[in-house]
Amino acid sequence: MATTKGPKKAKEPKNGEGDDASAPLGGKDYERELEKLHGELVKLQLWVVAKGLKVVVVFEGRDGAGKGGVIKAITERVSPRVYRVVALPAPTEREKSQMYIQRYIRHMPAAGEIAIFDRSWYNRAGVERVLEFCTNEQAERFLEVTPEFEKAMVESGVQLIKYWLEVSEEEQTRRLEARIDDPRKIWKLSPMDLKSYNRWYDYSRARDDMFKATDTPWAPWHVVRSDDKRRARLNVISHLLARIPYKELPREKPDLPKRQKPHGYVEPDYPYKFVPELNW
Q1: DSSP symbol at 192
Q2: Closest CA to 70 of 238, 279, 195
């Protein structure tokens, strides 16, 4: 089924370069395109609910790659009951004693849901492996069993879409430095982020091993260049819409009904505690 017109067809990169996508995208152009894509995401939402689809979208990448911004761009105009974001904290002692994948399985979608994982079971292949929160044997075993786990997921009717956001060394440095002094961003910079920054090539090796083991025909990795945040967000949303065939469902435009008459109702003289209205 083809989508209704809206998202642009993505251009294929030439010789590993971004073609005209190398130029920064202006704010007005970005907002205009994002508004169109938001409309399509709402159409997809209605389709997923009507057809009882089950979708899992995984976002992985280095610290500072822009995963949170992409997820926010996807979800800011849709229902959180359909587009459900899963961002798990560090495992508890109880969860550490469970089967590794167990804490993620409980967040898998039911019919009519899109579960978006802001980091996922691939923590074991990345941060846990590099920062030695698991053993090499545990990381290797994870890479062995994950393709079959994902195959079982897909065969059960779940559509699995995996994204890796790729950021350059220079851009990652710029973004992490910006978090140090900006009071709006200091919560984004943790001690683990600093350790991760220091071990760039360890992460590169872990990423390479992860792709080699888990980039399968039934659950391939889609790599997103994310140095330009705005372009990355538009590219991901356009790609996501193209990966889940949908149609715009017919609907009647509703009319607001007339309000009831007061029938003697009078506003009470009650001492409401209003929020102060400041002179901004």
Answers
A1: H
A2: 238
Sequence letter at residue 133? F
User: Residue 41 corresponds to which tokens in the numbers above?
Assistant: 């995401």
Alpha helix (H) residue ranges in the chain: 27-51, 67-75, 93-96, 102-105, 127-130, 136-155, 169-181, 191-198, 200-214, 229-243
pLDDT tens, the chain, 280 aa long: 444 444 454 444 444 444 455 678 888 999 999 999 999 999 999 999 999 999 999 999 999 999 999 999 999 999 999 999 999 999 999 999 999 999 999 999 999 999 999 999 999 999 999 999 999 999 999 999 999 999 999 999 999 999 999 999 999 999 998 888 888 888 888 877 787 788 999 999 999 999 999 999 999 999 999 999 999 999 999 999 999 999 999 989 999 999 999 999 999 999 999 999 999 9
Q: What is the pTM of this model?
A: 0.87
CA–CA dist 7, 242 (Å, integer): 8
Q: Measured between alpha carbons, how far is 259 from 272 in angstroms, rounded to an integer?
A: 24
Domains contained in the chain, CATH given: 19-243 (3.40.50.300)
The DSSP string of 83-145 is EEEE---SPPHHHHTS-TTHHHHTT---TTEEEEEES-GGGGTTHHHHTTSS-HHHHHHHHHH
Q: Which amino acid is at 245?
A: P
